Amino acid sequence: MKNHKIIGGGGVELNVIETGNPEGRPILFIPGFSQSHFAWKHQLNSDLANDHRLIAMDLRGHGASGKPASLDAYTDSKLWADDVNAVIQTLKLESPILSGWSYGPLIILDYIRYYGEEHIGGINFVGGISDLGTEEATALLTPNILSLVPGFFSTNVEESVRDLGSLIRLFLAREPTEAEFYFMLGYNVSVPPHVRQALFSRTLENDDLLTKLKTPLLISHSVDDKIVHFEAATRIASLVQHAQIHQTANLGHAVFWEDPEGFNTRLREFAASLDSRNVDVATAT
């Protein structure tokens, strides 16, 4: 694997991991709230790498990326858009698929708001939300996750670790193994409380973007998601008429972790459909 240090919005240094086939269609994995590129290890270390150029980034404030102290560094949508754009442009990603988990779709939509769809080939929302901070958006989050939110902002170590541990247990439909639990806990606790609070303090409404979206969209979501209600997926699909939903059951919020083979297969099929679409367009012209 290659490790890149890329300068994102406002000069923040972003940690980016790359592996896979340098000639394949790129897939840029964007992790969720309080996560890191390690969340995508079952994709980065899979046979997806035979066919695709795989890139995973640590969000600003997360993992090994820079962690500005100012709340403004996390509440400005343009900065998030600049981060994604910096990765795409610096690494010269040609028509990448942007795969965002949970909070990740919000960042993808930040990017589209400021940079449009011209430079992306496909989008994958994974257990994701498209709005934040409104009454309607909050209704799409489960009581389980909402009850933990105050602890995510706490500077009391015991309280913070306890509630982050509870968050991790909501990721999967099954109980995580001890190794999984402590691996995930490690990169969750590395995110400062002020970063988590800033991410949740944003108010975002993206229906205007979704109704005009032209880029192919795959929505991966489990009906048994313990964090984001499945209705979030159906709502997005109602706004994006060409959206495809990969509906699963007996899996949790992190479908790509709990069933990596199924997730990777569907993502590969989605990528292949984009290639076929491009061939059809070229033939028609």
**Total helical segments:** 15
* CATH fold annotation: Rossmann fold
H-E string: EEEHHEHHEHEHHHHHHHEHEHH
**Helical percentage:** 40-55%
Identify the CATH architecture. Answer: 3-Layer(aba) Sandwich
The overall strand count is 8
Estimate what percentage of residues fall within beta strands.
15-25%
Distance between the termini: 39 Å
The name of the CATH superfamily reads Alpha/Beta hydrolase fold, catalytic domain
Q: In terms of structural class, how would the helical and strand content be classed?
A: alpha/beta
Radius of gyration (Å):
18 Å
The side-by-side strand order for the widest beta sheet comes to: 1-2-4-3-5-6-7-8
Average per-residue pLDDT, rounded, comes to 96
**Biggest sheet overview:** 8 strands, mixed
Annotate the secondary structure layout.
Elements: E1 2-7, E2 13-20, E3 25-30, H1 41-44, H2 48-51, E4 52-57, H3 72-75, H4 77-90, E5 97-101, H5 104-115, E6 122-126, H6 135-138, H7 143-146, H8 149-152, H9 157-171, H10 178-189, H11 193-200, H12 207-210, E7 217-222, H13 231-239, E8 244-248, H14 255-258, H15 260-284
Parallel strand pairs: 3-4, 3-5, 5-6, 6-7, 7-8
Antiparallel strand pairs: 1-2, 2-4
Helix pairs in contact: 4-5, 9-10
